Amino acid sequence: MDRKWLFGAMSVLLTLGACTENSALTVEENGADESGRGEMTLSLPLQLASTRALDLDSLFAVVTVNGDTERFEQGTTVTTSFSVPNGETLNLQVQWFESQQNDDPLLLTSWTRSQQVSDNISISISSEDYQSEGAAFDDDNDTYSNLEERREESDPRNANSTPINRPDVRIKWINPVEAPVIDGLYDSIWNSATFSDVTGEILAIDNLMINQGAVRPNGETEFIWFAMHDGINLYVFVFGENVENDPIRDSSSPWQDDNVNLFIDGNDSQGSSYDGVDDRHLFVPLLTSPEDQSANSTYYEIGVNSAPVPQLQFANCKCTSGRHTWEFKLPFADFNIQQDVPFGFEVQIDQDEDGGARDARWGWFHPARTTTDVDNTWTTPSFMGRVVVE
Fold this sequence. Notes:
The protein is mainly beta. 5% of the residues lie in helices and 38% in strands. The strands form 6 sheets. Strands 10, 11, 14, 15, 18, 21, 22 and 23 form an 8-stranded mixed sheet that branches. The longest helix is centred in the middle third of the chain and has 7 residues, at 146-152. The chain is elongated and about 95 Å long.
């Protein structure tokens, strides 16, 4: 057999791992070995290994050599071979994909090289040599690459979801037949709800906005919110545990007593003022009225800047052991909520510890006070967080 053919033929050992070395790919063929055996070591590019939103086990590489293609799963070691005669051209391409549930794999980054084969060949590339920009890497044609959208946790296959409007919370779907009864009580289906934001932080309503006698410092509120949806309605639960006061409804204005504020901006306009269309704010007191100290399931007020609020179904519970709850059912159609499209959302709590005027207001997304009280969401929708129902 012609030794030049042997020297030009490559037998490849391909290793995929979660390495983060700068050299992401090395191909070597040692011409001194008559077997023509060489090695190809493929490591995960840094830009993928460092993207927290990616599940590294879902990544795989597709290697194409002169038109012959093989797929290699992340974390596996596979031996393959190909032959290219001396003096001819080696065309090599490496593409990294992310497996997608119920969809085609998502192309994240790619590298291509053409090189003439000689007795001794060495090809080395770094992570920076990979390409991830251009039409091939932008499945929804929104000018943001698939990798950028995965890094920012927007949807690379939905042009309405981009890094600049990345949701803070992604709300899980439940089967409509399992929808909760709206009674202010925690049913087992609520175990399927979303309890944290996209960074993993619990949805605590713990930013102290107004302090006129708060009994707890900023960051230590008793309240959280969580949510789920069935494709028709958004279900929201506000839960307070070990609440220190015994609530009293003694004010004509609900925000002066124990109360939940819900804010919804259906089209996520993020405006500096309410648009009169689908920017909404409503108050829901824990107790019904100064004359009726029972848990409230009928009375709510609309904020002065709010668009009209459709009929609302909710229930509260002044429960035992210092637990207060609010449970809401918000129809998508009534609040201009669309699946996979971000909308503005905020939950705030008013607390009255001792009767009379309000002692504290707490926010989920609104920033906490520093030296003076702050309270902007009721006038400025851009202070809402951004939520999407998936």
